[in-house]
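Please fill in the sequence for the structure shown.

STRUCTURE ENCODING:
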């Protein structure tokens, strides 16, 4: 596994943990499903965006906005 792929996986884990921190009723499975089914995740996979280089809280702000508004900004 490349370093880039490992960074992306670590970001997914961090985003899921942040989701669970903000919603005590969310399970690990729900948090992972939320991340993996998001536009934020699709952009994280794109090497050009380099989101995997950003802090998890910064990327989480996009995910949170997407969940609240239905669009990533």
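FILLED IN BY: designer on duty
SEQUENCE:
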């Amino acid at each position: 596994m490349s370093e880039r792929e490992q960074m992306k996986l670590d970001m997914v884990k961090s985003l899921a943990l942040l989701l669970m921190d903000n919603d005590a009723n969310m399970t690990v499975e729900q948090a992972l499903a939320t991340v993996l089914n998001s536009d934020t995740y699709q952009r994280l996979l794109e090497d050009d965006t380099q989101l995997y280089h950003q802090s998890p809280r910064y990327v989480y702000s996009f995910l949170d906005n997407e969940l609240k508004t239905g669009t990533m900004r």
